[in-house]
Amino acid sequence: MNSAQLKRAKRDVRRRVLAERDAIPANTRVRSSLEIAQRFLALPEVAAARTVLAFWSFGSEISTAPVIERLHGDGTRVALPRIVDGELEAGEYRPGDPVTETSFGAFEPAAGAAIDPAAIDVVAVPAVAFDRTGRRVGYGGGFYDRFLPRTRTDAARIGLAFGMQLMAPGTTLPAGHFDLQVDLVVTESEVVRCRPAA
Prior knowledge:
Layout: H1 3-22, H2 26-42, H3 44-47, E1 51-53, H4 65-73, E2 77-84, E3 87-92, E4 99-101, E5 107-109, E6 122-125, E7 129-130, E8 136-137, H5 143-147, E9 156-160, E10 184-186, E11 191-193
Parallel strand pairs: 1-2, 1-6, 6-9, 9-10
Antiparallel strand pairs: 2-3, 4-5, 7-8, 10-11
């Protein structure tokens, strides 16, 4: 698959999955988000983490507010992504800290200290779609594909998504050599370990 075909295939996945995700009723989205948060927080990788890079949800994404609040309440250092000079940076965040709205509707820390990627134990990774091998189709900016190599090799990369965003067994997403995979995917109904736990 050449680069033009790859872009077209990813665009088709985004269009289809986002339309389905946007159609999830609000009450279902809230309930499923809480179930995803519970599964994520119960993971041994998350329980042992000292620093977690979460993300501020926007649009029809799962709500990450319960995850952020619980991690902070448990004494875990929380970071949120922010874009600085076109690259993703992990900014320290505590609930109530000032935030600024991005052009696409998410919020990012306005003043929190930048956290060294090597200090991050768990990265909660957003995406439009995941498959069971850990491949993901993001929103097209490549921010996580450039950021993740700067984290430690033993830092857990965990995708958070509604079940309809996870491809059926045997179905793989289009991916190039530069597309980085996640180690686990957490939905409201299951945890998929794409690679064995270290």
